[in-house]
Structure formats: structure tokens, C-alpha cells
Amino acid sequence: MAAETVDGSALAGRALAAAGARHMFGVVGIPVTSLASRAAAAGVRFLAFRNEQSAGYAAAAYGFLTGTPGLLLTVSGPGCVHGLAGLSHATANAWPLLMVSGSCDQADAGRGDFQELDQIAATKPFAKLAVKATTIADIPHLVFQALAAAVSGRPGGCYLDIPSDVLHQTLPESEAADLIAAAAAADSAASNPSPPKQKPLDEGIEKAADLLRRAERPLVVIGKGAAYARAEAAIRKLVDTTGIPFLPTPMGKGVVPDSHPLSATAARSLAIGQCDVALVVGARLNWLLHFGEPPKWSKDVKFILVDVCEEEIELRKPHVGIVGDAKRVIELINREIKDDPFCLARSHPWVEAITKKAKGNVVRMEAQLAKDVVPFNFMTPLRIIRDAILAEGSPAPIVVSEGANTMDVGRAVLVQNEPRTRLDAGTWGTMGVGLGYCIAAAVAEPERLVVAVEGDSGFGFSAMEVETLVRYQLPVVVIVFNNNGVYGGDRRGPDEITGPFKDDPAPTSFVPAAGYHKMMEAFGGKGYLVETPDELKSALLESFRARKPAVINCIIDPYAGAESGRMQHKN
């Protein structure tokens, strides 16, 4: 009787499962269809998408939500190119992801083979590590190596290339088991090395605590890196024991509840403009934080920057730089402060100034939100959505926010009181992430409802994935703010409507009052068309209770929005 053999597809699937992978997102075809099936048989659930870009964004978000690499599977050539969107997005946001692609037979490389592409060269600019399995025996080791690289240091995307001939190679079952065991053992040894020589944390911790203690106007800035690091308990303790106001970045919302009395979100301009010491945890001083420079920030502000990447510290040159995991560093700062405690009273001038400004801005915003404006502006439906989400209690729904005005206004209105419950365009301002994020959130956090608040332009990038929602019966409610186009349809002035193509639709306009809800109905999901507060409330109540795929097509006044891109903060 012939010895049992294992091919490259089965070996890859088993290696991924042995390395701890539980979900994979992608689009199958030659030469990776069998790999998807074999991985599923080994215990890695495969979520089949309609487009590799959406699958890539799902894998990226999965990495953020779980702290483990999201897996993206693509075919060769153009499939790999489509996958670059998710790979690069993960790296830009510092989220762990492993993209696995099939490629052409090695013997035919350079001869114009089917979907031939130098995929290592294509992925290298966007990946922490890009490797190719040249024989079947390479697969287990490279799987473990790439998954480990994705989470080490600053997390990011990695790439594994498995040529078609390698996927079809075979080896004996006993050898396959030995290769996986050896790869697992090597990974375990690499994960527990002798402690490397590095700069001691103690000096930086002491300096940070001392600087915060002596500050007159301190501020804690919470980035999505703090959410990724599960630093919420440590940061909440720091805020509560010191009385220092905090400001979250968009995806740092919820690490400390938005409802906390020391939140400076509604007083952002005052907080960053007048603070004298800023402890920045898990956030980069990039465009989202105005590069930490005047005029938004005081020229005299002293930054304490906590980051897992030493290069980031060197680039920004803060007053105090601490390289390390956000959770561990804040725990050490808490311990240092405990030995010589301090706390800003609610009557402290700085706390009073932040609180007064925040309350004033909230009162003004709530006055706008209280009005039922029909046809809908952005405020009225966002208030209704906010209240419906808050009524769900805990575990709170995960909110996916995508669009221009929809995302910008939603950032101020929607409330996050639990960590990792807001997903948006991220560091790159990427459009098209919406439904991929929804699918990732639904499988990563199955106990939570997922609510997407999408502009009609943002929704259009990934709208076909509503079929994927229905196919897997995921608890996702997608609310489309339909204002007839990008920013609200045709906004051209008379001087722009000239020339031989003046009768064409505006570059920003879509088909008016498009029936997006009917797309969902076409696949067997539930669709709603809403134009009034009562219709929206009814649709939210019914869809939230059902926890089934739904699209709510919310008609918005096309003149309610404005051109939007960079974050605009007027508070």
C-alpha cells in the first residue's frame, strides 16, 4: 500500500492552522482554490469575497481587532495586484496581516506564463517581509516566519508567495507532520529568546512621570495603537488617578469611554493648542495630529511619545521617547506615579477650562442634533443612529464609519464607550474599506452587532459584498447616506459647466435617489428606504433586533454636505 502523501495546498492549510490562524479572507481561482478548501478542512474558516481589495481590508481590520495577523488569499498576477490595497493599508495602519498568493510555475517564469508577475518585487514596497516558497518543504517554516514578522515590532503586512508547481508538489504525510512540528518549535524558540540588550525603560518612565507631575496643562493623547495593545485598563487608571484630560484619535475612541468627564474630544483645539505636556500613546505625530507642530500645537509643548518603533521616536525627536508596548509602558508609568501620587482636581484651572469648553461645544451640537430636519441633513439621522447604538448597551456594536461628510460628522456625533468599536478610513484615509471591515468585525467579534454608517460614494467601492453578508448570514446593518454623489452631487459653478462635455453628469454626481436597498433585497437580505425620522427609527429597531444582513438607504439632502478630506476641527 502506497504511503499517504500531502500536497502543497494541504501543507499550507495545515501550517496556517498549526500557527494559530482561525480565519482567512480572499478570492479563489487558479492556483489557490484547493488551498482555501484545505485550510478550511484544517480549521481555518475561509470567507470568500467578491473582490480582493475588500478581502484585504477585511484581513487588515481583523488584525487590528484580534491582535493576530489577518490572512488574505489571492490568485496570481492581477489578484495579487488587487491584494496590494489591503497589504499596504495594513502596513500604513500598523496592523498585522499576511497575504498569501499563488504564482506561476517557476519553470515558466520569464516566458509570459498565465498571470505572470514578479510578485515579490510588487509586494516588497508595502510589506515588512516578502518571501517565496521554492519547494513544498519551505512552506511550514515560511508560514510561521511570516506570521511572526507581521506582529513583531511595529505590526504590518507580510507576503508569502507559493508558486503553482509548489502547491502541486507532494511529500509523505510523516514528513509533512515533521516539517510543521519543526517550524512550530523554531517559532516557539524565536518567541522566547534571551532578552536583547536595549535601552532601560526606567529612565524614560521616571522622566515621563516627573514631567506629567510638574505639568500645568498636561494631556493624554490616545491612538489606535493603544487600542491594538489592549492598553485600556492601564490608560483608564492613569486618567482616573491623575485627573489628566485625554484626547483620543478617531480609532482611539473608546479606550477610555467618550462619556468620561475628562474627555477633551469636544475641546480638541483648546486641548492641543494650550497643553504644555502631551503624553502620546500609540499614535504617530503625523497629519492626524498636525505633525505636533504650531500653529495647532503650542511651540513650547513637551511631547512624551510612547511607540513600539524606535525609528518613530528618532523621527519625531520628542522631549521623552519610550520604546515599548503601550500597555506595559503605561502600567510602569502608573507604578511610578503611585510612589509619588498627584491628581488634578476638577477645580484645577486646566481641567476647568477643558470641561467648560467641551460642555459648551456639546450643548451647541446637541441643540443642532435636537432638531428633526427633513429632508435629512447629516445631524438628524446621525443622532437617531447614535441613540439606537447606545440603546444596545454592552457589548457595544462595532461601528464602521466611511465616507467624507458621513465620517467627519459621525466622528463628532457617534459615541464609543468600549475599545475597538470604531473602524474608519485610518491613517491613509482609505475609501473602500467599509464592507470588508464589516465582515472582519462580524467574524472577529461574533457577539457584537456591526453597524456601518456609509456615504454613498464610500459604499460604492465595496457594495457587491452585500452578497457576502447574506451568504454567511452575518449580523451587519449597513446604513447608506444617499446624497446623490461625492460630497452631495453636482456642486459645479457656471464657469465649470462649459466645453464639449458640459452635458455630462458632474464628476461628483451619481444617479439621484439610487435604490441601494434593492441591492440587498436582490440577494435575499432586508432592505429599507427611509426619508423621515420615524422611518429610520423603525428600520433601526427592526434590523438591530433581527441581527441579519440589512441595508438602510437613508436619503439625505444633497445640499447638506461640503467638500471634505482632511480632518476639520472647529471646537
Automatic annotation (TrEMBL):
Assigned EC number: 4.1.2.63
Residue ranges constituting the Thiamine pyrophosphate enzyme TPP-binding domain according to the UniProt record: 403-554
Requisite cofactors: thiamine diphosphate; Mg(2+)
One GO CC term, this protein: peroxisome
Domain Thiamine pyrophosphate enzyme N-terminal TPP-binding: 12-121
GO biological process, alphabetically ordered: fatty acid alpha-oxidation
Group of enzyme by EC: lyase
Cited PROSITE patterns: TPP_ENZYMES (PS00187)
Any Pfam family matching the protein: TPP_enzyme_M
Physiological role: Catalyzes a carbon-carbon cleavage reaction; cleaves a 2-hydroxy-3-methylacyl-CoA into formyl-CoA and a 2-methyl-branched fatty aldehyde.
Family to which the UniProt record says this protein belongs: Belongs to the TPP enzyme family.
Protein name: 2-hydroxyacyl-CoA lyase
Species annotation: Panicum hallii var. hallii
